[in-house]
Amino acid sequence: MTTGRAASRYSPGAFWRKRLSPWRTRRLLEAHLLVLTVCALVAAGTLFLSCRQIQVGAEDLASREAPAVQGLAATRLAVLRADREARVLGELELVDVAGSGETYRAQLSAADQGLSRIAERTDQDLGTVNGLLATYSNSLNLGTAMYRDQPLMRDQKLAEARSLLIRPGVGLVPRLDDMQRVQMKHAEATATEGRLQRGGWWLAELALAALALTLLSALSVLRDRCGRDWNPYLLAALALTALLAVVPPLTMESAQDDLDRVAGDLRQITEVSRKRCCGPELAVAQQTVTEKSEDVRRVLADDTWTDRVYQGTLIGGLLLAVLPAVGLGLRLDSDYWRRR
What we know:
This protein is mostly helical. The protein has helices spanning 2-9, 12-20, 25-91, 102-117, 127-146, 151-166, 172-191, 195-225, 232-273, 281-302, 306-335.
């Protein structure tokens, strides 16, 4: 029995009661109410902002950044394959064959459609690239259709098209390369979790821990000094605190992992499209880009369930601020404020 008394005397509860003993009950409850309100607001606000940042990043990646990266990669491969197919026609002397040239024309059409699809998904100016693509397409068509019976003019137009395509710095492919680098930086910045965002999660967890400890202290004060049973509002707030400390961080961590995976896939798409290949490898590269693009779309579509967690976090944060205030506010009003 002596050992039990000594243990209870030096228990955390006994230590905390001794620390709070100089305080009057009303002032103590009011202090708890203030601390609970501040911690709840900080926790709810940081959770909301952190979840919102990941949600906005996923939405921007799905609607703008990822399609722009994919479109630029597809356009680059399409114009390179169009050049390859046109040169094969000339080398095999198939220019005069009826129906020839359908493959390179399809690739030029795909490149044009690719640029049209990303026009509203990128902040970069596509005017110069569109103009170069139109001029390149015109020179290629002249070399393979209009001057098919004039070898010298045909070769001159094909050489002109080739120059428009690969001329260092100002050609169509170098300009697409520059746009790909810029767009990839935008995509990585959108998908990557920054220091401020990580700090927000830590601040939310600290605020929730402080809130839980203050709730336990308030429940103890109500039982010891006011002779009240467990306050249902404070108990509900305590359960909600534990829930918010676990579910939103784990959910958003999973969503962030998916965003990191998408950023890796986009980097691979860009790298595949920029490999030096001019033969049959172009068709393989196009297939790889298509498959990876489908993977990216599937991963981003699977993250739509995080919207429900975000909405739940918003509602839970509001309840977290209201429940402790109601629980202690009603008790203070009933036992102290009305008697003043």
